[in-house]
Write a structure and sequence with these properties.
Helix 2 packs antiparallel against helix 3. About 50% of the residues lie in helices and about 20% in strands. By secondary structure, it is of the alpha+beta class. The chain has three domains: about 100 residues, no CATH class; about 60 residues, no CATH class; about 140 residues, Nucleotidyltransferase, domain 5 (2-Layer Sandwich), CATH 3.30.420. Strands 2-6-7-1-5-4-3 form a seven-stranded antiparallel beta sheet. It is globular. The two termini are about 40 Å apart.
Amino acid sequence: MKIVVPVKLVPDEAQASALERTLRTVNECANRVSAASFQAYRLKGSVKDLRSMAYGELKAHGLGAQAAQHVIKRVADAYTTLRTSVRAGNLGGAGSRRRRKAESKAIVFRPDAAHTYDDRCLSWNYGAQTVSIWTVDGRLKNVRFACSATVLKSLTLYRKGESDLVRRDGKWFLIATCEVPEAERYEPRDWIGVDRGITNLATTSDGDNYSGRRLDRYRRRLTRKRAEIQATGTRSARQLLRKRARRESRHATHTNHKISKTVVAVAQRTERGIALEELQGIRERVTVRRDQRARQSSWPFHQLGEFIAYKARRAGVPFIEVDPAYTSQRCPRCGHTERGNRRSRDHFQCRRCGLAGPADVVAGVNVRDRARSAWVFVNMPPPVPA
């Protein structure tokens, strides 16, 4: 299983200047290759096409052989992603303004966009916690990096493949790829159903609730502050908004990591599996009140599911996604399904048998019950031909 590990670089002033010039140079080269590719091939330039067209020019501009190859591949991959988005309809129909805008101009890379390194142009010294890295000013040796003991162990044992050089808020990072072995999956004794929501980010069938008033107050405060800054409308206000957006994103990611880690730990300790609702396209299917729309769109629910899934795989915990239909309206005792069963956002009461309880817990129980049936069906042996 592949995971990415961020490692903070601690370069001195001269090393930081060289790294900055390198990112700026490779992205300027990527923009030239992108413009040439768009003029010659529109959105259809392949790696082979771009290599024959731009490799010699990139080498003459001072890029090393591997750096030139990575620039070419990055441009080709960007156009492949754009073509895929167009075909999937993510940019609208054939006549939509957004699609016309995307198809009418070459892709442009930011001056500080990440650059990819492989083992030919980046080497690690784990004992000294330094790296040797290619730059346009030559090879930089003994560039220090800082990380926790857990991250260092993962790098030492499992790092494999490419790493990305990233500059974020004036700090330098290497995003390394690690191939971590998956634990052997056990047969679950039972399941933990997890219901994801807006007010309560995650509620399990055991009754554990992962949200709290503190997080809700934090999100409301950020919303008010964002509106105040947007009302200013100055250039510095826009810069501050981008900075705060990155901070909010890091906070959401950290919260999702904590929730997923706790859920997986409970499942592993009790030898149970984890079941989630399959929420593909939930934003398009579900309508909420006007005052809830921003909250629904501002939290990465898909990321939370992805975190639970990969942590479960790493720990050997069985994981399954089930049909989400009517999980908050179905009575887990008698099976009666009706919108009126959910009397309010927080409370559930079956109108047939009278079962009552927290609505999110009831939804988690329904998810758990569906996982029991689905797991039996998934593991059923194939029929023997007559």
